[in-house]
Specification:
This protein is an alpha+beta fold and 260 residues long. The protein is 30% helix and 32% strand.
Length: 260
């Protein structure tokens, strides 16, 4: 297959990402008349009513109008878009599909990316797909599709790699260490690495040390370290302020050793 997958051309139930901009615009649109009514009548407009309307309208627009499609449940296969695909030790951002009969397990997991809450992970024979968002409804429908096609045609997993943006400077060197499995050498023997993945422009590392979960995100602009225990500090630094690779590794090592 050489043609790029287009959600508009695929039949099936579409699941879309939550668009925070839609929620914000909806909130502004609904708050303005509420404030005007309050000023004109002298009676405060019920806040719970506004909150409920914001939720309902933003949900409606995300599902039916605006949100970007991240997966489609077709009759015999699951299509996914801009998802993290892992085969062996390699992880890439891909679009593709897999037959329901190829799915060995599907579960909702905590996101390794600090700015997100949960993701859906689908496991195959020798690969896994990490969908960018997760709902119990999506998981339930995938399980139902598996049962419906349990004895159906076996459809092999197909993944289409997304092009990477150009990397320069220190971030390019960091990415080269990631690809050569050098990045993990910054962690000592007391640290257990849960996952190292990339999302085209990010490298995300999840690890545990002395019972503390460590989330590290690296992109072309920032190094961000977040410790799951809220009593412990987080850390961020501009990549442009990091002198070289030795300085980069010393920052991570010192922060983790001093705070875990």
């Amino acid at each position: 297959m050489t043609n790029k997958l287009d959600p508009k051309e695929i039949n099936g139930k579409k699941f879309k990402k939550t668009d925070i901009n839609t929620i914000l615009v909806t909130a502004v649109v609904l708050w303005i008349p509420a404030i005007i009514i309050t000023v004109l009548t002298g009676n405060p407009f019920p806040i719970p009513v506004v909150v409920i309307l914001i939720y309902l309208l933003s949900t409606f627009t995300n599902i039916f109008c605006i949100g970007k499609v991240y997966c489609i449940l077709a009759e015999d296969r699951l299509y996914y878009f801009d998802s993290i695909s892992s085969v062996g030790r390699r992880t890439e951002t891909t679009c593709g599909y897999l037959g329901y009969s190829e799915i060995k397990k599907a579960e909702i997991i905590k996101s390794p990316i600090a700015i997100k809450k949960h993701m859906l992970k689908v496991y195959g024979e020798n690969f896994s797909i990490l969908l960018p968002e997760a709902t119990k409804n999506l998981l339930k429908q995938i399980n139902q599709k598996q049962e419906e096609t349990k004895y159906g045609q076996i459809i092999p997993h197909y993944a289409e790699m997304e092009p990477y943006p150009e990397r320069t400077g220190l971030f390019k060197k960091i990415w080269e260490d990631y690809e050569n499995d050098e990045l993990i050498k910054v962690f000592d023997s007391a640290t257990k690495i849960e996952s190292i993945i990339n999302d085209k422009e990010f490298i995300n590392i999840t690890a545990f040390r002395n019972g503390t979960e460590i989330l590290i995100t690296i992109n072309k602009s920032y190094l961000f370290i977040y410790l799951e225990n809220k009593k412990l500090p987080s850390f961020d630094k501009l990549i442009s302020k990091i002198e070289d690779m030795e300085h980069f590794y010393s920052i991570i090592e010192d922060f983790i050793l001093n705070n875990t």
